[in-house]
Amino acid sequence: MSTLAGKHIVLGLSGGIAAYKSAELCRALVKAGVTVQVVMTEAAEQFMTAVTLQALSGRPVYTSQWDPREANNMAHINLSREADAIVVAPASADFMAKLLHGGADELLSLMCLARPIDKVPLIVAPAMNRQMWSNPATRRNVAQLQADGIHVLDVGQGDQACGETGDGRMLEADDILEELEAFFTPKVLAGRAVLVTAGPTYEAIDPVRGITNLSSGKMGFAIARAARLAGAEVTLIAGPVSLATPRGVKRVNVRSARDMLLAVQAHLPAQGVFVATAAVADWRPDHSAEQKIKKDGSGQTPELAFVENPDILATVAQSAAAQKGALFCVGFAAESHDLLAHTTAKRLRKLVPLLVGNIGPATFGQDDNALLLVDEAGARELPHASKQVLATQLIEDIGQRLK
Ligand code: CTP
Fold first, then answer.
1. Which CATH architecture describes the domain 8-184?
2. 200: which DSSP letter?
3. Which parts of the chain have pLDDT scores under 70?
4. Which of 16, 33, 265, 370 could form a disulfide with 384 if both were Cys (CB 3.0 to 4.6 A apart)?
């Protein structure tokens, strides 16, 4: 469930070709459970029609400060008082300059100026040509808008409608939605650095074969996302999975358990929390053939011998214990039965303050799960829910412990 559900957002469109993305944004907001009131400038109407946005938001669009539908004829007051936030997307260079100076010659800027500054946050998604974006005037304006408490989103990079390539594209609708989600998420991990391992590892037998497991990485990716939404700086060490990297998360791809350990150790300094969700292969072939192992026609199978992989969590937890609490370690236990007993025993064996038990075969590859949080004091169940909901609950729990 989105933190945006139940919110009321005024979506303002100023004039820019990126306005076509605002239709998608409006739709995505409505889908997330937001009520959306669209306000458009005259310039925005050159790019999108109010009809489109009325149909997508399910509410008549406001385009004029003189709109007679408001009994008091004060749309700028009424609309801004109802909102949980005003989101201007696209915010053109001209509109941002106008905001900066407190201009108020049409409804959208008038409403932004009239909003109760301490109650109704203003979030803008800039959209313009790369030269306009890098112009010293725009740089100054962005800095001043931020200093005035206006939340200025990043811009995207790439091909622009004008044919040039560079910074200044408006973020995609999904990215703006994610930024709004982050904006409204309580910052229980603000200022913390969080390192997460996720997915399976792959242990090569030869250049074309290997052993791996059914972990999809979904739980670890959901935790990385939840931690970032909660204000953490997140590094995700991912085994071979094809999941999209959560926005704002730094991802490092690895293959084998030993690669994962090296990547974890390289990123460990300066971390405050380590969450090991990866289903690390316990064993690897004792050597990996340089060339493909061929059948020789005799029907004889190759002899495989295994050696144990390093235990990444135990290694990290041990050094964390030696450093007396600078790093908070959270492990997972993938079990097939006797969840409480195995998770409790594993927690003591791995020396971690919090171990999260789950039934591996029931959850691998699925979008939902149920978790058992085991610590020194006992066990607490997080009942069946989507992995994203559970990830949010787990991050809230970790945030409480670090208070
Ligand atoms: N883990 C790890 N490195 C390993 C094995 C496991 O970091 N080589 C971590 C996992 O990421 C998880 C926790 O240890 O956080 C427990 O993993 P799990 O597979 O449940 O347990 P194992 O240690 O492999 O023990 P067993 O196979 O006996 O259940």
1. 3-Layer(aba) Sandwich (3.40)
2. B
3. 325
4. 370
pLDDT of residue 323: 80
Pocket test for ligand 1, best of 277, 282, 340 (most atoms within 8 A of CB): 282
pLDDT score at 365: 85
Q: CATH assignment of 193-285+304-402? A: 3.40.50.10300
Are 144 and 100 in contact by the 8 Å Cβ rule? The answer is yes
C-alpha of 208 from chain center = 34
Determine if ligand 1 sits within 6 Å of the CB of residue 282.
yes
Q: What tokens were used for 389?
A: 């909901």
Q: What distance in angstroms lies between residue 366's CA and the mean position of ligand 1's atoms?
A: 20
- Sorted by where each begins, the domain ranges of the chain are 8-184, 193-285+304-402
Whole-number pLDDT of residue 69? 93
Q: Indicate whether residue 390 lines ligand 1 (CB < 6 A).
A: no
Q: What is the pLDDT of residue 252?
A: 98
pTM > 0.85: yes or no: yes
- 8-184 against 193-285+304-402: fold identical: yes
Concerning whether 162 is annotated as a catalytic residue, the answer is: yes
Residue nearest ligand 1's atom 23 by CA: 311
Residue 23, ligand 1, Cβ within 6 A: no
Q: How far is the CA of 332 from the centre of ligand 1 (A)?
A: 7
Number of residues that this document lists for the chain: 403
pLDDT of residue 364: 85
Asked if 248 and 194 count as a contact pair (C-beta separation under 8 A), the reply is no
CA of 36 to the centre of ligand 1 (A): 46
Contact predicate 155/142, CB 8 Å: no
Q: Would the CB of 333 count as within 6 Å of ligand 1? A: yes
Predicted local distance difference test score (pLDDT) of residue 362: 87
Q: How far apart are CA 10 and CA 7, in angstroms?
A: 10
